[in-house]
Amino acid sequence: MASPLNAEVRCPTEGLVPDDPITLVGLVFECAGGLRRRLAPTVEQELGVGGQAFEVLVRLERSPGGALRMADLAAQTGLTPSGLTRALDRLVHGGLCVRESCPSDRRGTFARLTPAGSARVAEALVRHRDDIDALLVDLFSDEERGALRDLLARLRDRVHPDAALVSGSEAENLAPQPG
Length: 179
Fold this sequence. Notes:
- The protein has helices spanning 21-47, 52-61, 70-77, 81-93, 115-136, 142-159, 170-173, and strands spanning 67-69, 97-102, 105-113.
- By secondary structure, it is mainly alpha-helical.
């Protein structure tokens, strides 16, 4: 006889209290965890890095000049300074990023994608986008996707406002490192 603990049990969404905040936040966590489990292996295969290092690369790719101040990068990713240092060390060692001094603040440091890093991230993002599209095909209409994006951005801005920080135009003006 199978133990009830081992039986597959699905929690139906019908009958849930519509405004139950515990269920709402639980669903957000479950979706985030499921997306990581489904998408991370492909990213790791494409780039040779995953998790936090991939987030660092994407943040740099989407930043002006492919660079961010280390403090802004830590704030955006939610990484501790030591966690960011370890992630960036792996990326620098792999030739995907470099560290550069800040011309206006001797104590400041930027992380910048190398040309090789930018090319690898661009390739990985094509595959990543395809994997995301495969997950979402026929799940949401364009209107629902837009509404979900807007709702999640509002939630993100409330719980992690630093996620959208952008370094000043100084990052764009840094001379690229020879690569």
